[in-house]
Structure formats: structure tokens, C-alpha cells
Design a protein that fits this description.
Eight copies of one chain form a homooctamer. In chain A, strand 9 (146-151), helix 7 (157-162) and strand 10 (169-173) form a beta-alpha-beta unit. The first copy, chain A, contains nine helices and eleven strands. The first copy, chain A, folds into two domains: 4-81, no CATH class; 92-225, 3-Layer(aba) Sandwich (Rossmann fold). In chain A, 38% of the residues lie in helices and 20% in strands. Chain A has a five-stranded parallel beta sheet. The first copy, chain A, has a four-stranded mixed beta sheet with strand order 3-4-6-5, with helices on both faces. Chains in contact: A-B, A-C, A-D, A-E, B-C, B-E, B-F, C-D, C-G, D-G, D-H, E-F, E-H, F-G, F-H, G-H. Chain D binds chain H through residues 99-103, 124-126, 130, 132-133, 176, 178-181, and chain H through 2-4, 8-11, 13, 16, 27, 29-31, 35, 54, 173, 175, 183-185, 188, 203-206.
Chain lengths: 226, 226, 226, 226, 226, 226, 226, 226
């Protein structure tokens, strides 16, 4: 059951869907454009959908140059190779940002969740410095099954949302900020120390990871019904 | 709807259940035994169940001395004031530890989850240095709806589990270790950088927070069915 | 004009009021009880009011044993030697805390401000995890001339308040928390990175410093009218 | 009263002046030139003055290309969109720097304060290594209503000034320095640990934040007289 | 016996082989292309084999331009000047990586070990998120005399391997990752805190150092037999 | 083959010797005296030798009180339960310290190596500030098969030794020092950045880990001969 | 010439005076009272003066109990074993502190310098928050041959002094402070980043090291005249 | 006596020689080429020698373009404006480096010391990994009046030298290294924690500061003779 394909520089997991309930994904950074393209090619031959994250334009160009039918979004830096059957995941994930500059990370989260079949509702630039912007969205947020809170600077968005909703909140610190933001450590620490409950945290700028966690949460209901 | 009781040194949230789906909880540290007892007393009068975390023996003694019918567990340091109707939450949460020294944090997680009505399955001392111990539990882990992975030292337990199961994994770093463990920062960083997907992280030694997040995940299914 | 009294282990500033507009203050830690008492004695002879901060019970006991008419408050750990003429400072300072455990630091701020003649309004346990508690105080906060926001954990209180009022906000991070709170570094960093404007920050647990800054702000108006 | 305009990637606060006493401001970094220009355009249509900070030349060029009548200063990197009625704020803010290399941050502070209507007095290159330079300015500093002390390296300027004047001092650490300056952490920590009173601190290189805080201080007097 | 050649900017160790059992090596960074070429030239004249690490393409080009018969590998960034008699070291070193992006560091290790005469077996992309990939290699790993485990992100590979084999394991953290990876500090700390025994650690990205340590281990057997 | 005994709070590895070539060991901290004694008892029944590290006097007292025939050394804090057949490991490990205060960590290393059958040669207080002390030991060091260099403060001992011998050197930073030693981080970082080759590093104060690594190195020769 | 006495746990440097120009010194922490006493005893037999630093009262009591004629000062924690001929070192060292709480570190410096024969002038509590206190001492400071500036908190004292005198300044950061002082890291970093010239720095609380450096400076003149 | 020239962006210290015994120096970074040239021009008009440090080629080009007769050395990045009378300082300063890559920092030190009149002896690439290189220089080092030890990586050079000579040693950590060198923090911490006496430390890569301190040390003898 635990089978993989060995292409030298990579051992490709061909049945991750069976094991973890989700298609294979590929971490873009540190791979040459050729390596990334070869990986996608291997999955295409197997008919396995695959999502590549944090891809550079050079990687995307190589993929396109080889005629691999994947789409690249320069904001989220996601490459979606969507040739298999698109899954459907019941439930809605709300993706919020503190500011405009957090949008690329939020789009990584939103795009990932959509790739895995979830419905996504976006609420951008609702940071705590202008609380009325967030409060105007509370009813909508309370309807979501899971919330992803993306924020840099002081990273307070997750705490405030977790105190307002019943759903689990995944907080994503971003590297938006400067000086004592320490490239995202400040919001990361803030989120880990939240005085609100129901919050868990992923790595700085890791919109992808937040979305995978949220999708696994949505799948709890499906598995129980199955 | 957003009502609270003001007792001077604290503003008690009397309808958190309506807003966040869960009973009130109290963070023990930094409160005098008298303050903690007064808070529990106020909730008792309102008939609201309440859980206090990281309580000292002195706090527990004061609560007992006032005749407040709460139970104190010295391993998890939880004080459970269980006078209201006990909730039932469908689904099972697996709580795992890397080693024996991680058990107090794991018990905080397990006790919290049980307080909020979830079923808990414990797998202790299954760290990655002796992989066969963990592998012998895989079938059981795959049946859980959510997994809480508690580990100090290098904190690899969460990554390995997240690669083996479909459920969301909440990783709890612990302060178990010494030297370059930096009081738990080493496993915290490791967990945030997991090469596995589906993992989110809470503060060092925060078994409570992991359990609340996991319970919110279980509630997704309930709310959808309601 | 810049005169001081040399008592060997300390050079006492006898005309700080002229230079900085405020009575002399003494930092308690690192001084023996005898040294602290000798310092207070010197100021008493000169008829100069003096405030000592972060005093231990041992220091307070020595001061009392020598018959020096100063009061000691064990919560704020302030020793107030109030023999001179009490100043009056026009204006109100609001002192808020995120939780109950932040109260000792808040009382250091409040007691200091009162010592220097300001009116103080206390709003304790109004942290952002239960936003309605804070929102119920907004009108009162908007009337204050300066706000001191005292919070540990993720330290979001200052940001939220600064977005709601016109007054300057001085944020005080506290060492309340554990694990990744890093003894108060997490809220300190959060406050420094606030997405809200009008916030400035003092050292961890430095309620005293926040109060002195706020009092200097109130004095701007007085000086202009003089 | 708490109204905002939603332009997708941003929720613009249209009545911040009513709520916080100050015009809207925009944080430049992380916004595309198009986004920044669109935001300014929206405010122009509403007739609301707006200040954008830390703008890149590319952002400024896009604003100019669209014919938006805003001025850009490459030293302070401020974009001032000054179409509304210019406010007048009574009082003077002194802006000091330790060295020549701190001037861009100081100009961000000075330009911001002037945008909000304050009078500014500049004292540049008065660092503590040549104390006579600072001492020659003491009389002038003592007349200011608030002082902004901008310094990198060891960041001692704020402490020395706060011991010489009655006004509140806002200290701005800068990233000027190298090695153990840790990109400004060294002066930040020094300022937070000042042995002088009356000092509060903002983020590294955050001249803007210091100026907004200082302007709020000046407004205390105005509001009381109103 | 302890002789060296002084060429001004460098003192070249001409008999390191006698003293430490291994040819001279040169650390490339911080040397001008001219300096590096002059060093290689000096060793060539003495007939001493030498390995230069972390060389830039510019350094390699200068070496080639001078006709020095050394080979440069752009992946490992090793320059091998192999003119002397090639040593033979009995035993096999297994070099493993967590992911594809760790390969350059692994190749630095593998190339170094081969330069010093060891046999190398490569197992790339066998990280713990897909444990079956690693488990499929266990028999091969158990035959190796020493194992080098190269991993970024959470750095768990070394712990898992050290629990599976009898050989000493040298762990090499890499700077592969982002955000809270802190440029490799996260896996470094994880490896230092390994719950498994038999693991020792070298600097981030220091494949070279791991290989030299492993070769010294292999030489223990040779020296005893000699 | 991978069998373990489950005693609730611990899963005891009963055949680690087969898998990793070495007896089971137990990490003392975080275990109650009762837990530690129960673990030793279980191994005694199985006739398996076991070594417990960093044991407190309270743990040792409980073990003694139960009549378990293990010896406790208060300097190294090792508990040796030596009931099985004592292994013999060919080769000598030299254990050196920079100063007298490093001896407890060195004794943990030496005692561990002896428990696993190696011969140990001790060279204590040979730090680099008085180089002649170390140089007087060079011949002896050059005869060792592996060297363990234990040092706090600036941690230079390992670098100097690694430049003098052919054997692999395992460096152990200690928490001896104060201030900027950062509880051992300073020598840890120094050792990781050694300009000498052939050095690998273990956690601060981890004499045990260094010894296990060194013993695995000695076993390379044995296995090849077997 | 490089001779030492080996007493097992220590290798005592018996001719350090010849090599480094100064008597032997012993670092107290980490040595048992018995070890410290044995070391002093050995030097006494050799007639060698010796200074032990950072000694605990327990160590001092053991030394006294054995009848070793050494004096112990509980403020500086120095044990001076002054049996040899007292050296005389021409020149004066000024020792200054920022505050009263820095005095123990300053006394360690002053006592060490006096032990090695230098004249010491003390200026305590002359921190930069009340500049007139320091300025009143400038003439005296300008006469000193070397200055030791001891300060915690923001550590600005050294910078200000180095800008006022021609002598070399050795700055000693202290752990006086709290919160973001990070146990002395804040003044350490400040001192390393001084904008003044002529300043060098020793470890936090290392008054001893500063004094030894200053004494070596005074000896330059003596050696040249010899 | 304390006079300066105000040129707007800088307040130039025109009589630093009288006050601190040394010509004015200028910190290059953060100044525009125009600002640097204007500063040099001002000093030229006053006939004051001046040294500018860490200058970029752009700054040097502007200085040359204006015909200012200063020399620029691209290795040390010093600009020497040597128009006044060259001072002579009796005594020799030895400047040593651990490796070749440390030479630029060492040349900054050597060039600065020569500018101020000292004789300099250079010993480059004498790091502790090949101790015989350093030991071959001991006699020469023992003749120097002060030693500057420049080293990156583990920074052990200063400790070893300070144990071999009687002169004061100023240690300069460099940013040479990678990974856990943390851009020079590792050698900085090592040097601060030296087990040798007589060592003081300056900022990372601060060859200039080390030289100024060493020159002040040499001047002690001159002043006493004057």
C-alpha cells in the first residue's frame, strides 16, 4: 500500500490520497525548474492531481514550456495540476487578512483549499486597528466551518476572531512588517500566546499548511458519515 | 447576548457557550487562591460549568477549603467544576506523547477534551527514537477523528504522525529537555517547520489549547448535522 | 541648578522636579533594605516627596522599622513617601488590563500616576478574547486623556484600544504567560508592531514608566497654559 | 459612524478622523503600485487627506502617472496627499538624531508631524559621543512640547534627553549600525531599558509612529480646551 | 614536523596528513579568486592533494583560467584538486536527505567523503513525512559503517535513523525551509535535542564537516589494524 | 524483532541491543522516583542492563529503597544497573575538560562509555587559556581512538584538539559560565563553527550522548571484523 | 618554563606571572568548597598569591575553616589570598557605575585592580539619566589612566564617558534591570554598538575581566620603561 | 573648548583631538557620497586630519571627483585624509587573524592604528586549528604592546593569545562563517566568554574600534611621561 516512485532526486508518493486523504503536493523552493517539471510530469503520467507551492516564475515557465497543463498564479505562487477528478469537500472555510499586504499568503491558503474541494469565503483587510471592519463580518464568519486568520505585524486577528466564533481557527503569521517584526516572528509568537481558545498556528507565511489543516477538519464530518 | 459579570478583578464571561460553543475556562497562573475561588464561586451560583487550568496545589486547597465541589488532578493541574450538565461530543481524540515526561501536558489535553465531552484514546511514550512503538499504534491512530501529538526534545512526533493519518493533527511542544531545547523552543520550531501536512501547533506545554482546538474540530460535524 | 546629594552608594537628585517636572523616584531592586531606607531618609530630611518602585517586603519592613512614614502596597510593590505637598495634575488616565494576572503591573501604573497627581480610571480584565467586555467601556475610554494598556500573552489590547480612541496609548507588555511568551517578549514585540497608530511602548512589566510618560503628556497642557 | 469603503483588497476607513482624531494613513510596503494608487484615488474622491508611508519610488511613480496630486519625498519616503484642509495643531515637536545616517527616519517623523499640523524643530547629529553638541541644544529642547529621539547604534540619545527635559520623549531606534546592532534590536532594547523616566518607544525605523503618538499628545491640550 | 608555507595572506599546512590523517582542505568563502588559485597552485607544486569547499563559479573560473587541473562541481560547490595518490578508506558511508532541496549539502558530504577515499551510498528524499520511503531503505542503512543525515525543515531524519541503526549518525541541518526555520536554526536545534542516541551534529549546511567526521570514524578501524 | 514492553506510562524497548547495538538507557528528568524505579525493575526482571542519566538524589533513593541493585554516582548523576553481562568494547576514548567545573558533564561521558565497555582516559582542566597544559597531553590524546572534548565558556577546546589529532572528536558544550554564555549557547555555537575539521557536537551538558556516539564509532571496527 | 601542578580535578598554573605578568586567579563557580580550598592550599604552599572570583559564602566558609589566611568580601564576592609580596602598578583606574545596584560588579573590578597593585578611584551612581552627576566628575575622570564603566539597563554610561576622556574605557554590562534587559544582554549590545570610540567590552557582570584588562594596559608603560 | 561646526546634516567635532586625544573619524555607512565629501571638505578647510571608515567605492569616487586629496583602500574600506601633521605613537600593535577571510577587518584595524601613528605588525592566518602556525609567532607577539585578535567562526584566537602574552588583547569577532555563525554572533559570544584573562571585545567586524582602543592604551605611557 505504501508505494512510491523513485526518480533519483525525489521519491514520489503515489498513494498519499489513500494514506492521508489528500493528493500529493510539492514544495517548490530548492528545486530546479527541471526537477519541478519532471515531478509534475511523473504525476501526470500516473493521472494524479498535484499542487506545487511557492513556485518561482522560472519554475512556472519551465512547466509551461514542456506543455504540462498546469496553471500558475503569480500572487499565491501556486501551480495547480488539476488533471484528475476534482474532489468536493463539504463545508466552507473563511480566509481573513489583517491587511492588504497579507493577501498573497491568504491566496495561497484559499487556492489550496479550493484545490482540495472546499468552498472559500474571503474577508481581506479586516485588521484589529479598525475593529468595525471585522465586526461587520461576524455573522458571515460564524457560519464558516473553519476560519483561517492571516496577519502580520502584531498578529492579533486570530485571537479576536477565535473569541467571536465557534469554529476552529488556524492562524497564519506573515512576514509583513519591519524592524521588531523579525520577519514574522512577532506575529508568530503573538498567535502562539493567544488569550483566546480554539486557535492553532502554522509557520510564517504558510497559507498552504493552514488550508491543509482546515481541509482535514472538514473531512472529519465526511468520514464519520461514510 | 454578550453578557458578563464584573467582579472587580475579573469580568466573567457568562454566555461563552452561546458564542463559542464551549464552557468558560479560567487560566490559573497569576491569580491568588482567593481570586480563583471567587471566580469558581460566581460560576457555581450561575450553574455554569468551568474548567481551570495550570492550578497550583495552593489554589486547589483554597477551592476545597471553601467547599466548592470541584476536583483537582495534580498531574494535569486541572480543576474541573463539573456541576452543570455534562456535554457529549461525538468523535474520538487520540493523545500521544513522545516520552514519559510529556505525560503531564498530555493529561492536560486529555482531561480538557473529556471535560468538553470528547472520547480520548491515550498512546504514551511512542517517540520516534523507537519507531516500532508508534507503528504498532497506527491502526488505532487512523481511526481517531483528531490527533494531539505531545512531544519535547526534537518534537518530531507530530510530523511522523501527520504523514500516517488523514485526521488533523495538533502538535504540542513541551518544555521536556535541557540545554539547546531552550525550554521548549526547539520542539516548537520543529513542529512549525514540519515537512508533513495537516499539522498545526499550539504554545509550549499548552495541552489545554490543543484540546479546545480539537474539540472545535469535532463540533464541525455536529453543527452541520444540526 | 543641577544639584545632587552624594551619600556614597548613591548620588541623590535633589532638584529633579525643577528639571524634569516630577519628584525623584527610586528603583528598588538591587538595593539593600538599608540602602533604600537611607535614601528615603535623605529625601525626608530635604522634604522631598519620593516614590520607590518594585520594592520587596524586606525593603518595606526596614523602611517601617526606621519609622519613616511611607506606605507600602504589596500588590503594586510601590513605596510612597508622601510627606511633601501633593501635586495635582489635570486630566484622567485610563488604565486597562487584558486579564486578572496583569493587575499588579496595572496597579504600579495607577499608583504612580496617582502619586504624581493624576486621576485614574481602572478597567481590568477587558482582553480581546471577549471583545464585548472592552466594547462596553469604549465611551469611558474615549473620555480619558491618555490610556495605559497593560497586557501579557499576545498583547493585542493596545492595538485594539488605539484604534478606538483619540488619546495617546502607552502599552505595557507583561510577563504573564508561559512557553513562547518568552517572559513577556511576545507581547512586547506585538505591541511594537501594532497595526494601530498612536501607540508607544515601555519595558515588560514597567507600569511605572508608562505612568510617568502619561503624566508628562498631561503636563503639556498645563505648561502651555502657564 | 464606523463606516468604511470596501475596494476588495482594502477596506478604507473613511471616518478615522472622527474616531481617532487624525486622517487616514496607508502603510506602503506590500502593496502593488496599482493598489496604492487606487487607494489614494478613493480618498481623493472622498476629499480625505491621506498620508502614505515607506513608499517605494515605483509606487510614487505610479501615483504620479495617474495624475494624483500627491508629493513624494525620497528621503522620508512619505507620499503626502494634501488636498483637504490642512489641520493646525498647537505646540512644537523637537526631532533629534544621534547621527547623520538616522536622518531618513527622523524626516519620516518630522514630515508626518507636519502633515498633521504640528510645528517641528530639527536637531540632527547630536549623539552622546560628543555630548557638547546635545548640551548646546538643551534650552531649545526644553521649550518643545514633545521630543522624538531617533538613534541607532547604542540608542542612548533618548535616555540622556529624557533626563534633561520635562516633556514626554518618544524614542525611535533605527537600523543604523552593523554586527551586534542586529538591525536595530540593540538600540531598541537599550531604549526599552532606559534608566531615565518619561520615555516610551516605537518600532525600529518607525518615525511615523513616533510622530502620530506625539501629535496625539499635543491634542490632549486642544481637547481639554474645546 | 609541524611545518607550513607562508604565502602572506595564508599559512598553508603542508603536513596536515601526518598530523590529522587527512589532506589539506580550503574554505572557499571570503577568499578572492586570485587567493584561492594561488593556494591551489602552492599545493600543486608540493604535490599535495587539496579540496576546496563552497567555491563560487568565479573562483572556479579563475582556477580553470590558470590551467590548474582541478574539477569543479556546481551542485556541491566542491573544487577537487586530485593530483596526488588517491587514498582508499575501507567502509561505506550512507548519505541521506529529507528532501530534494537538501541535495546540494548532501553532495558536498558525499563528494568530500569520496575525495578522502570512502565509498558512499546515496538515499535522497526519504524524509519522515512519508515514512515508508525511509523504511524501504533500512536494510541498506544498517549495512553502512556511518550515516550522514541531511535535513532541513524540522530536521527529524537523524533521530529516526539513529533509532534504526547501530552505526554512528552525523546529522547535518540545512537552511532549506522558510519563516520559523530561521535559516536552519530549527533543524539544528531539533538535531541537538534528539531523543535518539548515537547522533552528533555539525553546522547548518556543513556537509563537508560531516564527511570529515565520518571519515575519521572509518579510520579508527584502519589505525587499529595498522 | 522490534518488541517492547508496555507499562502504561512507558513503552520499554526490550531488544534495543539487537537493533542499535547498545543496552537500553533511560532519561531521568521528568520521571517520578516511582516511575524510574518501576522501569528499572522491569528491566531487571528481563535481565537487561540499563543506564539511567541525569538522575536526582530522590530518584536514586527510591531505587535503593526498593532494593534494586543499581549504583548511583552523585557527580555524574548516572544510575548504573549492571546486572547483565558487561560488554567489552575495544579501543580508548579520551575525555578532556576545559576546566574543573566541567567535570560533572565529563564524568557523565566517561561513566557512560565505561558502562558500554570502552576504556576511558581522563584529562581534566586542560583549557586553552593555559595551552601548555593541553600540549603536555598531546601524545596521549593522539593514541586515543576517539576524543570527547567537554568545555563551557568559549568552548575552544574541541577546535584546538581536532587540529592536533587524527581521531574523531565529539565536542560537548557545558553550561559552565555566566552572562553572555547564555547557559551554554556560546560554547555550543563556537563548537558548531569550529575552524577545525573532524568535530561534531552534541547538546549542552550532554556527556551521555557524546559517549554513545563515541562508542558507536569504536564499534565500526568490531563489526567489520565480525 | 610553562609549568603546572596537577591536583587531579585541576591543573594549577604555577608560573602564570612569568607568562602573562599577573598572579593566578581562580573562577569560583562550579567548584565545590573542598576543591576551592584545596586549590588555595596548593598555592599557599608555593607562596603564590591568588585571587578567587564570584565565591559563594559556602566556599569562603570552607576556606576559613581550614585556616587559610584569605579574606572574603561578600559584596564583590572576591577571596583574596594575599600572602606573597604585593605588587605595585603605577597609574590610576577610575571605576564608575550607572546606579547603586551596579556596585557589586564595580567592587569586583575595583578589588581585582587593587589586588594587582593599581590605584582605584570610585565614582558610583553617575548614570546618564542625571547627566550633571557625571559631568561633575569629568575632571577627575580625565586624570585616570583607564576607566571602567559599569552599567546595566541601557548601558549608555560607557559611550558618554568615552566621548569625554582620552583614556581607554572598558565597559562592563550588568544584569541589573528586568524584562527586555534580558539579564544584561541589552546593555551588552548597547556597549558593543557604542557610537563613541575607545571602548571595549567584557562579559555581563565581569568586573574581574575588566580590571585585568585595565591592569594590562597600565603595565604597557612599565614594560616600556623596563 | 567643546566646539563643533554645524553643517546641517552633521555637527562636526572640530577639537576632538584636545578632548579625546585623537583626530576626528567619520562612520561612512548611511551617508550619501555628497554628505561624506562635504564632511571631508569641511575638515580639509580646518586643516584637521580625518579618517572615514567602511566607505563604499561610490563614496570614494565622489571624494576623488571633488579633488579631495584622500586615499581609499578597497580592502579595508578606509578613506584616509592625511593632510595634517602625522602623529607618532610609541609602541607596537600586533594584528592577527584566524584566517585569510578575516583580512579585510584586520586591515581596517591595522590601517586605523597606522593613521593614528602606531607601528603595526601583521600575523595573518594563524588560527587555532593549526596551532603550530600561531606558536611560531609567540616571541613576536610577546614583544607587542597590545594585540588585536581578529577571528570569525568559533573565535578562539583571542583566548589562546591572551593566555600566551602579557599585553592587553582586543578581540574582534568577524562575520566570516555561515549557518550557526549567525553573522558573527558565535565568535562574539565566544570572545565575551573567554576563559583567558586580559581580553576585551568590540563589535563584529569593528577593526576600527579595536585599533582606537589599542591606540588609547599606547597613549597611557605617553601621557604619564608628559
Amino acid at each position: 500500500m505504501d508505494d512510491f516512485r523513485d526518480i533519483g532526486f525525489a521519491k514520489l508518493d503515489m498513494n498519499r490520497t489513500d494514506r492521508t486523504g489528500q493528493s500529493e503536493t510539492v514544495f517548490g523552493p530548492g528545486k530546479t525548474p527541471e526537477q519541478l517539471a519532471a515531478i509534475l510530469e511523473t504525476f501526470r503520467r500516473a493521472g494524479t492531481r498535484v499542487l506545487a507551492t511557492k513556485c518561482s516564475p522560472e519554475q512556472a515557465a519551465e512547466v509551461a514550456a514542456r506543455g504540462i497543463p498546469a496553471t500558475y498564479d503569480p500572487v499565491s505562487r501556486l501551480t495547480r495540476a488539476d488533471w484528475g477528478e476534482k474532489p468536493i469537500l463539504k463545508g466552507t472555510i473563511a480566509v481573513c487578512t489583517g491587511g492588504t499586504a497579507d493577501i498573497p499568503v491568504a491566496e495561497e491558503a484559499a487556492g489550496t483549499a479550493e484545490f482540495f474541494g472546499a468552498a472559500v469565503e474571503r474577508h481581506y483587510d479586516v485588521g484589529v486597528a479598525g475593529l468595525h471592519r471585522l465586526l461587520s463580518k461576524v455573522e458571515s464568519l460564524r457560519r464558516a466551518d473553519a476560519v483561517i486568520a492571516v496577519a502580520g505585524m502584531e498578529g492579533a486577528l486570530g485571537s479576536v476572531i477565535a473569541g467571536l466564533v465557534k469554529a476552529p481557527v488556524v492562524a497564519v503569521p506573515t512576514s509583513v512588517g519591519y524592524g521588531a517584526s523579525l520577519a514574522g516572528l512577532a506575529p508568530l509568537l503573538a498567535m502562539l500566546n493567544s488569550c483566546a481558545e480554539g486557535l492553532s498556528v502554522v509557520n510564517i507565511d504558510n497559507g498552504f499548511g493552514a488550508a491543509v489543516s482546515a481541509c482535514r477538519m472538514l473531512r472529519i464530518a465526511e468520514r464519520r458519515q461514510a
